[in-house]
Amino acid sequence: MCSPKLDIKIVDSYTTFRSNNKTAFIINGDSAHLPLPDNSVDAIVTDPPYFDFVHYSELSDFFYAWLRLALQDSYQYFSQGDSHHPGEVQDRDPGKFSVQLGLVFSECFRVLKEQGLMVFSFHHSKPDAWLAIYHAITTAQFMIAASHPVKAEMSVSKTKAATSNPINLDAIIVCKKQPQQQPGKPLASEVWSTAYKRYHIYRERLRNAGRMLSNNDKYVILSSQILVYASCSRLNKPETQHLLERVYQLDFSHAEDLMNQGNREQSENFWKNQLVTAQTHFAFFHE
Ligand SMILES: C[S@@+](CC[C@H](N)C(=O)[O-])C[C@H]1O[C@@H](n2cnc3c(N)ncnc32)[C@H](O)[C@@H]1O
Question: Whose CA is nearest to atom 27 of ligand 1?
Answer without folding.
Answer: 56
